[in-house]
Amino acid sequence: MNRSIRRSTRRALIAALLGAAATLGAASPGTASAGSAAPAVPLRVATYNIHAGAGQDDVFDLDRTTEAIRDLHADVIGLQEVDVHWGARSNFVDEAGQLAQRLHMRVFFAPIYDLPPTTENTEQRQFGVAVLSRLPVVSAENHEITRLSTQDPHPAPAPAPGFAEVTVRARGTLVHIYSTHLDYRTDPAIRRAQVDDMLGILAADSGPKILVGDFNADATAPELARLWGPLADAAPNGGKTYPAVDPVSRIDLVTVSSGISVTGVREAVTTASDHRPVVADLLVRRHGR
Predict the structure, then answer these.
(1) Chain segment 50-97, per-residue pLDDT in tens
(2) Residue 132 host element (H or E)
(3) Which residue has the higher pLDDT, 5 or 164?
(4) Which carries the bigger pLDDT value, residue 18 or residue 165?
(5) Residue 119: pLDDT band by 50, 70, 90 thresholds?
């Protein structure tokens, strides 16, 4: 082979390698690279606003909530509207602890509100979000995001806790999972601020990330627009989730970062809450040990 042919061959090989690298680097969120050195890790993740243990009928029944969660067969579940000794509506039960015990799962509870006991009960009154996990939990943190308190008659936007982050180990791979509950008010300004706050927290973490929760807005809402790019909606054509009976809105979402592919998503039909849970089957590219 003469020199000019060898040079041409080398140039073609280098161009092909550079093209392949560019393709891998441009993989979109929600897409695992086909060039991964090791098989991707299967992971089933769910989100569920449990309505403080009350069903669509407003009857408190933690047994019913437990069965609805068990039927999801998920590895990790982000929960919203979780009472811990909160009040009579949930019999002052520690819902996070009870659900973890009944389901034989680990739990991290991230209170939004942490208030003094009432005369009816001696425990601190707490309300917030939680993460249940069958997988080992490496770390957990209750982050602050902008909130407009429901406990103050004249609230002003301010940082407040209740954005849960749990890092789990899935077959040697570290995965960050976040559970959120965004503001419910018609004015989207607080939700927009909350999106910015969450993105700042996610940006500080490396590796695969899964953000789930009750966003109180459809995925197409303008105030959620900045999520799409850093994250991808796991079910852009998914079914509606609220209310549980004859739902009209899809406000309960599973979202994923790059390195994670979605193989299936479904909404569970149950009236154990006023929301329907969403469960997603994912493949996570291996990252970290």
Answers:
(1) 999 999 999 999 999 999 999 999 999 999 999 999 999 999 999 999
(2) strand 125-133
(3) 164
(4) 165
(5) confident
Mean pLDDT, to the nearest integer, of 228-253? 97
CA distance 172 to 282: 16
Of 188, 187, 113, 181, whose CA–CA distance to 152 is shortest? 113
pLDDT at 279 > cutoff 50:
yes
Give the domains, in start order, of the chain with CATH numbers. 31-284 (3.60.10.10)
Q: SS3 of 263, please?
A: strand
Residue recorded with tokens 């009944």: 102
Mean confidence (pLDDT) of the chain: 90
Q: Which long-range contacts (CB under 8 A, 24 or more apart) does 199-206 make?
A: 199/226, 199/227, 199/230, 201/143, 201/145, 201/163, 201/165, 202/176, 202/178, 202/230, 202/231, 202/257, 203/230, 205/165, 205/176, 206/287, 206/288
Contacts 24+ apart (CB under 8 A), 8-15: none
Element (H, E) at 77: strand 76-84
Length of the chain in residues, anyone?
Answer: 289
Mark out the alpha helices in the chain (DSSP H runs): 3-25, 62-70, 95-103, 189-203
- Check: CB of residue 146 under 8 Å from CB of residue 157: yes
b/e for 113-148, b at 16 or more Cβ within 10 A? Answer: beeeeeeeeeeebbbbbbbbbbbebeebebbebbbb
